[in-house]
Amino acid sequence: MYRIDLRNLVRNKLYICKEYHIQPSEVDKFVYYEFEWILEEIKILQKEQEQQQEQQNKEMSSMKNDMNPGRMMNNMTSGMKMPNLGSMSMPKMNIPKF
């Protein structure tokens, strides 16, 4: 005979009904081994989705770091030489008098 944890069974049925919009009466029609196979496939799909989401999060965080305005300014100014302000002088201009 099989031993089934009823609380776990109800929890799994509820999850399937909620996430996949299936009526509880339809889940009850499943043969037990089909129910178990469905749960195994759901777990596999969840792991794949979590891995994809982690990959997307890593890509987004690297994009955020690349688009950081402070870092972009540092990169721009590091390539340019700043003039020595002590050696510069103001241009002389003659203003006409009336």
Care to describe what's here?
- The chain has 98 residues and is an all-alpha fold.
- It is rod-shaped and about 110 Å long.
Radius of gyration: 33 Å
Mean pLDDT: 80
What's the count of strands? 0
Query: How large a portion of the residues is in β-strands, by DSSP E?
Result: under 5%
Shape: rod-shaped
- Range of helix content: 55-70%
Regions with pLDDT < 50 over 5+ consecutive residues?
none
Task: Provide the succession of SSEs.
Answer: HHHH
Number of helices: 4
In whole angstroms, the N-to-C terminal distance is 114 Å
Provide the structure class.
mainly alpha
Largest sheet: none
Layout of helices and strands:
Elements: H1 6-20, H2 24-28, H3 32-66, H4 69-79
Summarize the structure.
This protein has 98 residues and is mainly alpha-helical. The protein is built from 4 helices and no strands.
Question: Key terms for this structure?
Answer:
98 residues, mainly alpha, 4 helices
